[in-house]
Give the backbone structure.
Amino acid sequence: MRVLKLISAILPVFFCLSLAAGAVELKPSVFETELQAIRYDYSLMAMAADDFEEISQGADTSMTIIKKNKYKSPVKAMLLSLAVPGLGQYYYGSKVKSAVFLGTEITAWTLHIMWHQDAEDMTDEFEAFNREHWLESRYSRYLELAFNGYTDDEDIPDSIGGITHHLPNTQTQQYYEMTGKYNQFAWGWDDAVLNDSVLEDYDSTTIKKIASDDTTPYSALRFEYETMRADANDKFNDANKMITVAIINRIISGFEAYFMTRHRNKKADDGSNVFSRVHFEAGLKTLYTYKDTPFFKMSYQF
């Protein structure tokens, strides 16, 4: 009887302690915490293989995953590539095409700058060559002998004829072009010779106006000069072509980004853009509680 009374007295105490223990949430050990983290990390990695990606562990150590948003704006992709070639390709997910378009842009502008500078240097060289070997004083002397004492082609009346161009008063681009390009200025070159005679061998009675190849003195320096000038112009043209290449590259990059983004959207949507704009987010609280607490959020991109 004493034993039964003792048991009947102790049972209520154990019952109350059991209720109190059940009401208290026990914190797992460090080992249990790490074990659960590894278990859920592995599970999330398996889910992220195709359509999901792990975002981060927040301060509350909850694991969060989101569905990748496959929709990309074609207009945005095009504008990005028009601004910076290749940026639209990077936006829709192609790093290789992005590198190709951006590399083409950089190459085109690099070559333009290099070749334009080369052309400027070549221009300085042929202009210096002109100043050394074409003398305005020799040209004025030719005019004086052939045109009744006139030393400036602007003063020669049209009735006399023989003048098709007027030498600029300053050494402009036109000045350097005319002195080498037109036969009228051939006697200005210091090596000019006609019928084995130089300018100094002629007088007003023997010199002839330049009217054809037969009356045009030959000058090796003039032809060398024209070659130098042509090479410089060719280099300028090459430099300008690189601007054209850069513009075309930018246009192609923009349209490629637009149409490829549309194509990828359609491919991802299986013919519908609606679901590709849906954004899913799901999470699991896994570390500091025995019972997982899932949550789910959905949004739509307009």
